[in-house]
């Protein structure tokens, strides 16, 4: 069953279905509210629940509104691109040789074929960003392995839609989102440490939090920083 409830100026869609717990979500880009609730729950109870979460709903909506949205990139001269949290302006050059990227003090040079498409340019830059990330990660892993007391078998850098990183507990592998190359390097370090701690403790329980606090007392600050910065996708999990 579907219904709508109004909470002041907020309209929430309610879906009653065969579930055990209430789920309340705030969706980008406009902060649309949706509540899934168990079938047997009355609309009045759903409303009471939503009212108790009103502060949280408003916080989430505010967060979504304040987040700078990244417009689609066109890979043309003068466009802003990021590496390690620093902004660079794009300079596009046409070349007959192999396409490549050059990092200057304030510019990122994209050397591309005269007939290169937006997709080709995007792919070139993404590959380059992945390489930047790949070369930054080993020293971070080497720094944290003895501190945390865990070994990373392998790490992978890849495009990920909704996460900054993930790990395979059994194999001892960690995976990192290519987008991290655009963030300040301490954000990358936080995600590396987070995933390494997951190799010891899978869930975000008290033990996990304690391990994070011990190893990286400022981890919450880095997490905030990641959330504060422009994002391409919402509802990041990590
Ligand atoms: Zn996690």
Q: Can you offer a commentary on this structure?
A:
By secondary structure, the protein is α/β, with parallel strands linked by helices. It has 3 domains: 65 residues, no CATH class; 48 residues, no CATH class; 96 residues, Zincin-like, CATH 3.30.2010. It contains 6 helices and 11 strands. The strands form 3 sheets. Strands 1-2-4-3 form a 4-stranded mixed beta sheet, covered by helices on one side. It is globular and about 70 Å long. It binds zinc ion (ZN). Zinc ion binds next to helix 4.
What is this entry, summarized?
It contains six helices and eleven strands.
Features:
238 residues; alpha/beta; Zincin-like; 4-stranded mixed sheet
Number of helical segments?
A: 6
Major sheet description: 4 strands, mixed
Give the strand tally. Answer: 11
Bin the strand percentage.
Answer: 25-35%
Q: What Rg is obtained from the alpha carbons, in whole angstroms?
A: 22 Å
Bound molecules: zinc ion
The sequence of SSEs as H and E is EEEEHHEEEEHEEEHHH
CATH homologous superfamily classification of the largest domain: Metalloproteases ("zincins"), catalytic domain
Shape type: globular
Regions with little confidence, pLDDT below 50 for 5+ residues: 231-238
The CATH topology of the largest domain turns out to be Zincin-like
Number of domains: 3
Structural class: alpha/beta
Sequence of strands across the biggest β-sheet: 1-2-4-3
Classified by CATH, the class of the largest domain is Alpha Beta
Helix content: 25-40%
CATH architecture assignment name of the largest domain: 2-Layer Sandwich
Overall pLDDT score: 89
Distance between the termini: 33 Å
